[in-house]
Design goal:
This protein has 758 residues and is α+β, with helices and mostly antiparallel strands. Helix content is 32%, strand content 25%.
């Protein structure tokens, strides 16, 4: 693999099933807008496609129907919407329509360049009549101008002289993708967007639409800039606009069409129609080549801070770069959005935000971009009132319960056993507020937002749990493993709830010591007595433990169940959730993903090393990894236990999951949590990073397949570079004051460089 290919994703496939996957892999996004990698000219009619473009945080509302609706079941859910389709550009050469499925494809390649932030399609094509042309198409979703998506289409003639015609479309009549056989995507066909107005102003085609139930407006504005003299004709109806552009081309000559597309919405703009015009005029002031250069400069700064370099494993390096780039493309960069389970690459999980953000993706931003990490936590704080309302719906008199899946802040999970019952999301969010404090030392943020979130989530645990024989227990919840639902004393949930309660007390004491608690305590009605109750519950929290096996049972009943018959389960019956009734699965010891093992990573100090090791070995045998959130965690814990070969194998599955379509559903969008898991696997796994109240710790290991690896992290105002090879680990303080670090449990003062033998 060349150096360029470490930074590029490429494909030359025209296979129908791979094209669906490539629509995901070659999407472009910037955290605000995302556009799937569909061919501008389309496919043959019998080919399937998921043609889509999305705005982060823009949604419509769908009715949820229950055969038997009980109290508190949701009536509706939010769903990310497919917005106006601006991708269409058809090309005609002497009346022949260009298509990669007609004539002769002499050369075809598509490239996602992760240093330039551009997707390219390169084609050499001979028409049925023998006309040969070269086509180069570039797409960009700008990180500098977040409303901008551009298609840059160049045609160079090899042996043809005559007229060429571009037919460019802007379609407001769009639908969301659905599949009633797959619970991971929408199961119903619905139209969510209705065109309100369609017009032309200042040579800009504008369509403003409104969502049918949430009443959010979305505007698309399109402007065509052509390289030479041309004839232009516009045709429009009440739902779409078509622009025909006629040019003359000679052999050896090139003609270029740049299609500028602006998206705005009424969530962010009071008048999204006018805002689209203003943003278009602003964009057109900057030459297209300069926009490309600005994109490259932005990404150069990103990679300088965020890159993880592995020397000696090119396929893995490509997967790492893809993961980090997709995290950047997916993350919302304002207060109105978060990170959807599929980013902005597809409609899997309907654009919902999950616990994935805090546990899997936020660590990357926390260690590389404090501002983006703070934005993600701000989103949770802004949804705190909705979480309080959700808690009341569930019968809780106090506290806040964050919804399992949401966009606007209300619960969108219709199947509560593996949705709403996952109360651990409260502790997951609380955990990352604490991690943010460890990494930044930002007491102002604790006072203004973090403490309130921890106090309200702590209250929820007090209202959920109860005492039995002097131990605090939590019944009828679901842990991360969705193959075991509605259980008592899920180890992960109890362990994380304990941490949540403990740090609610610590935040209270921290603010009290600094004379900052009075206003918040008065606002929330918090008393010293209540804080003492949190402390007692944390101290008395019941954590299941089996003395004979020296493991932490996943829950009270887990070890009493029969073990799933893995030997006689056909490979085509995975994932189990698509082939077996949930109740059937719930009766067995079988895990969809890391559960207790995840707790052993996040809160490793709760158990002795032998228990962590034996738990890992026990659950490894019964975990299917049907969830994309699993292999990265097993890799991290394997690295901690010195199982380096296993850690490497799990990590390779993680980094290549979407590039190799391992779960066979990449067509629905990337697995963004898995992308975050790739970063965690390197930094928390092989480098052994842990960030605790007592400081920053490293325990590096390296697989035999690698010569070295290195990355940078930001920690309490410092930037540290970590380099590990087969002989030693090297720590360099690049910015900031000297710092105490721990390597292999030994304390060092880092004021320049430290080299430690492995």
């Amino acid at each position: 693999m060349t150096e360029n290919l470490k930074w590029q994703i490429t494909s030359d496939s025209l296979d129908a099933s791979q094209l669906l996957v490539d629509e995901t892999l070659f999407h472009v996004a910037n955290g605000y807008i995302g556009v799937r990698g569909n061919f501008e000219e389309g496919y043959p009619n019998h080919y399937n496609t998921i043609r889509g473009a999305y705005i982060n945080g823009v949604y419509d509302i769908s009715e949820v129907k229950h055969g038997e609706k009980l109290h508190g079941f949701i009536d509706s859910k939010q769903k990310i919407i497919n917005i106006t389709d601006v991708q269409g550009i058809k090309l005609y050469i002497a009346g022949e329509k260009f298509s990669l499925f007609d004539g002769k494809v002499l050369n075809f390649k598509r490239i996602l360049d992760m240093r330039e932030g551009i997707y390219k399609r390169q084609i050499l094509w001979e028409s049925p009549k023998g006309h040969i042309i070269e086509i180069n198409i570039q797409r960009m979703a700008s990180f500098i101008k977040p409303e901008l998506f551009v298609i840059d289409y160049t045609v160079r003639s090899i042996n043809y002289e005559g007229e060429i015609v571009f037919v460019s479309t802007q379609k407001g009549d769009v639908f969301n993708y659905f599949d009633p056989t797959d619970p991971r995507v929408a199961g119903e066909l619905e139209k969510h967007l209705t065109v309100e107005t369609i017009d032309i102003q200042k040579d800009i085609g504008i369509i403003t639409s409104i969502t049918n139930k949430s009443h959010i407006r979305v505007t698309s504005a399109v402007k065509h800039v052509v390289s030479s003299q041309h004839e232009l004709e516009r045709i429009q109806d009440d739902k779409s606009s078509t622009t025909k552009i006629r040019l003359y081309i000679k052999a050896g000559q090139a003609q270029r069409l740049v299609k500028y597309c602006i998206f705005t919405d009424s969530v962010r703009f009071s008048d999204c129609h006018q805002a689209a015009i203003d943003k278009m005029e602003e964009v057109l002031e900057t030459p297209i080549e300069q926009l490309y250069q600005l994109q490259k400069v932005y990404l150069s700064a990103f990679w300088d801070k965020a890159d993880v370099v592995v020397n000696g494993d090119d396929r893995l390096q490509q997967g790492i770069h893809f993961s980090l780039f997709e995290l950047l493309q997916s993350v919302g960069k304002d207060q109105y959005s978060n990170i959807a389970a599929k980013g902005l690459s597809g409609e899997g999980y309907e654009g919902h935000y999950f616990w994935d953000t805090e546990i899997y993706m936020l660590p990357f931003f926390l260690l590389t971009d404090k501002a983006l990490a703070e934005n993600l936590l701000n989103y949770r704080y802004e949804k705190l009132e909705a979480a309080r309302e959700n808690a009341r719906i569930l019968g809780h008199k106090k506290g806040a319960l964050y919804p399992w899946r949401t966009i606007s802040g209300s619960e969108c999970s219709a199947y509560f056993p593996s949705g709403t019952a996952q109360y651990h999301i409260n502790a997951d969010i609380a955990y990352m507020f604490v991690q943010y404090y460890f990494v930044t030392g930002d007491l102002d943020f604790v006072e203004s937002k973090g403490a309130e979130v921890l106090f309200e989530t702590a209250r929820l645990w007090m209202d959920t749990g109860h005492y039995v024989e002097d131990s605090f227990r939590i019944d009828a919840v679901t842990g991360p493993d969705e193959y075991t639902c509605i259980v008592n004393n899920n180890y992960y949930t109890n362990c994380m709830a304990k941490y949540n309660l403990k740090w609610a007390v610590k935040f209270y004491e921290l603010l009290k010591e600094n004379n900052r608690i009075e206003h918040l305590a008065q606002k929330l009605g918090i008393t010293e007595e209540e804080v003492n109750e949190w402390q007692q519950a944390a101290e008395k929290m019941y954590l299941p433990y089996d003395e004979k096996l020296d493991i932490n049972p996943q829950d009270d009943s887990f070890l009493s169940k029969a073990i799933w018959d893995f030997e006689n389960t056909p490979k085509d019956q995975y994932p189990l959730l698509l082939h077996y009734h949930p109740l059937y699965i719930y009766r067995y010891q079988v895990c969809k993903q890391a559960d207790t093992v995840l707790a052993h990573f996040l809160l490793e100090d709760e158990q002795k090393l032998s228990t962590i090791k034996k738990s890992y070995e026990y659950y490894e045998k019964i975990t299917t990894h049907d969830s994309s959130l699993s292999t990265c965690i097993f890799s991290i814990v394997a690295a901690k236990l010195g199982e380096i070969r296993k850690a490497y194998d799990y990590f390779m599955q993680t980094t290549r999951l979407d590039l190799d379509n391992i779960h066979h559903n990449t067509k629905d969008g990337i697995h963004t949590a898995n992308m975050g898991g790739t970063y965690m696997g390197m930094v928390y796994g092989f480098a052994g990073l842990r960030i605790k109240e007592s400081g920053i710790f490293f325990n590096p290991v390296i697989p035999e397949q690698w010569k070295s690896y290195e990355f940078k992290i930001c920690y309490q105002g410092r930037m540290i570079k970590i380099h590990v090879n087969q002989e030693q680990s090297h720590y360099t303080l690049l910015e900031g004051k000297e710092l105490k670090i721990h390597v292999y449990d030994q304390e060092y003062i880092l004021n320049d460089d430290i080299i430690i033998k492995i």
